[in-house]
Amino acid sequence: MGFARAIKAVLSDDFRTAVAALTPKQLEYASIFDGTDWKTILTSRYREAVENIDDPRIKVGVWLTQWAIHNIDRLAKHNDIL
Description:
Helix content is about 60%, strand content about 10%. The chain is mainly alpha-helical.
């Protein structure tokens, strides 16, 4: 299978086609979820492996995420939403 066809298969709208197109190496970094209501291929292990915490852009992204979570939590508690 050519590179372009392999990429197209992984990005297929058909879940089984996308999962089948993953290489053994890609499967090392993927978590396949096939639930009753939704299906997805999670790639958090890959993202963690390539994340460079010394990169200022990553540091800002982490900070913003923590800030947003803190504010969502604060607003939810303030409005009695648990």
